[in-house]
């Protein structure tokens, strides 16, 4: 893929506050399947500023995961241009600009928690001392100190997902891509992890792109909510929120929260998401 | 049995000792088989024994007939105690270096089994790695691998032995090669499945970390394939024992369980054949036990639930 113009303007190493973490112009992706072509995403224009917490929300099949995978260079767009941290997604991936967190923790069952967190560090060639230091630091950040020597099956689902977040943070990427990371967890654990994630985002000043199909989760976490609709997957609304970075779960009771949630809901409805 | 139920005033339920609960079914089956075996031995050897008595024109009773069927020198079906007795004599009655010792023969077969197993498992793993990583090989190799297992090994074994013998390879190696030929297949199939077993998510993760192919192999694919590998090795090690025995049959081998079986059938020594069979099955059990032990050990090192 050709490097987009943004790359030349901002430069790969730009650390300015207004630098764009993600910039997409006219991005479309069509899958060839046995039943013919399926347009997963259609003509997406999107800018994500560094330091933002952006949620993609929409029903199944609206292309939110596909869009995240395009950012991660796990899928290639069939049209349009996209830059990640000012370079192509492929370069961003090769330079390990982002950490990707899936819905499943996908920890390796034969590795202890500390060795799971150290895995990307091993692959990237960090030495043993650096690995130990990073593993300690990030396990502490996700409140898993003391579980270093446990195997994944000895941890609850929420703890496993925290370990996978520590693993994604361990090599200190500027960008976190999270694909329904708490989708498989129960509501109580989910609330708790949402708070922890916000604190972590506030402390580390990372850019987070977060895929979800929960309206409260999207409104609570985000500085910017991208509402998407299916067939073909496209953006139908982008909503900025004004909550403080150190927000707590209590904001969910405020009129402002309810108003934004309402707008997300009506956006989803206008996208005919509830037709079926 | 406990008497705790007595205090409740109801008749005590019989509670068996856990060991009994565990082994009673096995023992029951073994006893049943032995009983059937004795009946079969009596029935099958009856004809020989009766014609023996009639040839010598000695009067005989039913009791004579039955005891005769269970102590015949060359019975059609030897009784279990005869097999055990001969097995005991063959194992303990001779020094282990003597060609009459079953231990000696077992060792000969075992050594070609081990070498064949190592060669076969190694070859099987290498094939699997190639098949998983090189798409064209998957299409071009697999049919041949499957064909290789359809060839009747008894027919091919003598050819292999003769060809290898003509280039100066004799003794252990040809037998080991035949054993390897038989036992690589389950390893290849199992490891191909194992190497392809990681989740798409785990492969995606490796990609997001821009891991090299070698890193993906050593850190993800290979560890994922270990359970599949051990399942295959268990099948494969018994097949390699069979391969080693089969390889001893057409070669006029002087030593080994196969040679022992052949000699037994030449001279009608059925009891000796059965004793050799007992030795072969004990070897097989031991070999599977070894693989099992290795599996547990590796499993513990890999954090398996125990």
Tell me about this structure.
The complex is a heterodimer of chains A (276) and B (306). With 276 residues, chain A is an alpha/beta fold. Chain A has helices at residues 5-10, 64-71, 89-94, 113-124, 128-141, 157-169, 187-204, 215-221, 255-270; strands at residues 20-33, 36-49, 53-57, 79-84, 98-101, 175-179, 207-212, 224-229, 234-240. In chain A, the strands form 2 sheets. Chain A has a 6-stranded mixed sheet, sandwiched between helices. In chain A, strands 2-1-4 form a 3-stranded antiparallel sheet. The two termini of chain A are 37 Å apart. The model of chain A is unreliable at 1-17 (pLDDT under 50). Chain B has helices at residues 18-56, 62-69, 80-92, 102-133, 135-148, 153-166, 172-195, 200-208, 213-248, 257-266, 270-301. Chain B is globular. Chain B has 2 domains: 3-77, no CATH class; 102-301, Orthogonal Bundle (MetI-like fold). Chain B is mainly alpha-helical. Chain B contains 11 helices and no strands. The A-B interface holds A 72-74, 93-94, 96, 98-100, 102, 104, 106, 108-112, 119-120, 122-124, 151, 153, 171 and B 199, 201-202, 204-211, 215, 219-220, 223, 226, 302-305.
- In the CATH scheme, what's the topology name of the largest domain in chain B? MetI-like fold
Strand residue content of chain B: under 5%
Largest sheet of chain B: none
Q: Alpha-carbon distance between the termini of chain B?
A: 29 Å
Helix segment count of chain B?
11
Name the chain pair with the biggest interface and residue counts per chain: A-B, 25 and 20 residues
According to CATH, the homologous superfamily of the largest domain in chain B is MetI-like
**What's the oligomerization state?**
heterodimer
Q: How are the elements arranged and paired?
A:
The complex is a heterodimer of chains A (276) and B (306).
Chain A: H1 5-10, E1 20-33, E2 36-49, E3 53-57, H2 64-71, E4 79-84, H3 89-94, E5 98-101, H4 113-124, H5 128-141, H6 157-169, E6 175-179, H7 187-204, E7 207-212, H8 215-221, E8 224-229, E9 234-240, H9 255-270
Parallel strand pairs in A: 3-7, 3-8, 5-6, 6-7
Antiparallel strand pairs in A: 1-2, 1-4, 8-9
Helix pairs in contact in A: 4-5, 4-6, 5-6, 8-9
Chain B: H1 18-56, H2 62-69, H3 80-92, H4 102-133, H5 135-148, H6 153-166, H7 172-195, H8 200-208, H9 213-248, H10 257-266, H11 270-301
